[in-house]
């Protein structure tokens, strides 16, 4: 890693350790700025841009957690790593739940320090993150997905993005577009489940004047609107079968025929699609064409749920707070510790979208600069923006059922399969679908 790729602000009140760590980090190729207290670090941050803050936890005046709180108000996306000679597991857990990127115990292990700095830099360095600027994350699971996306973005292949509602499928599609050679051309999105069949066909392929009642003018359609760029088909699993045939033909022949026209029009469009549905099951049921699936699913990117990336919750909550406060022009600056604790331990069936809505409610209802736990609890209780689709509700029940039946049989898969009325092979397929294992369920129960 070159110096230009990593500028670290090192904060410690021990001069000898400060000097030693500076030499060690510079030897690794990082550019290092020094501060001997939190107050000096905050002054430095007003003048200099850094990629990571590495700070001692115990210091006179403002301690490391207080420094983190101040940084989080000013720049929520800046990773902060804390060091302490008095580390304990509860202390580390509390720090990470509040949004601290990492926690190291002195004396520092060289490889652990290097690894955590590199992970932090993957989140922070602008050269690596411009294309994904709209995606707020530091979790390893999300990082893996984003690195896959970055690798396939320059290749003109179709990508199917899967994941539950509210996980950010359109955001990922926009990021892929931004990282592709088509970035300067249009990005056009449509929800395939939001329109009836005849309107969806017209929206996608266009229509001629007089093609049907109400078609008083010619309409180009989204394929032509996206020409040269990217067309994002959200909830592709809800597309009616007759339209699936027409879409497949358009993708194979790279040309479309508007409704009411006898002429075909050449198109140059990259298609990205997304769904929260189980497309394999839809194909088995005959509601989704297998040939279209393989045409759209050249590469599959699976977005994790918010429950699978809990370390992102403080980061997302602070980002939402900052955006909402600016939008409503109110001076709301932070969450109390117990309020953040509630957010990080809450279940988020509506994922990031639901979290954003809860924060928005808190900002709208608060009378002061700080959001407390009572307000978060009220917003969580009253939040009615999320209602699962039938497919999502079924999937949630199915997962809970699998967990329960494995707990009842102490993780014995054969007995669990018998209780569920399934053969072993089918039962294992269900476990794989929900990313479960018998060992994981029994460990969690313990």
Kindly describe this structure.
This protein is an alpha/beta fold. It folds into four domains: 3-128, Response regulator (Rossmann fold); 140-302, Rossmann fold, CATH 3.40.50; 306-382, Orthogonal Bundle (Helicase, Ruva Protein, domain 3); 390-445, Arc Repressor Mutant, subunit A (Orthogonal Bundle). The chain has 21 helices and 14 strands. Strands 2-1-3-4-5 form a five-stranded parallel sheet, with helices on both faces. Strands 7-8-11-6-12 form a five-stranded parallel sheet. β4, α4 and β5 (102-105) form a beta-alpha-beta unit. α2 packs parallel to α3. The radius of gyration is 25 Å and the shape is globular. The mean pLDDT is 87.
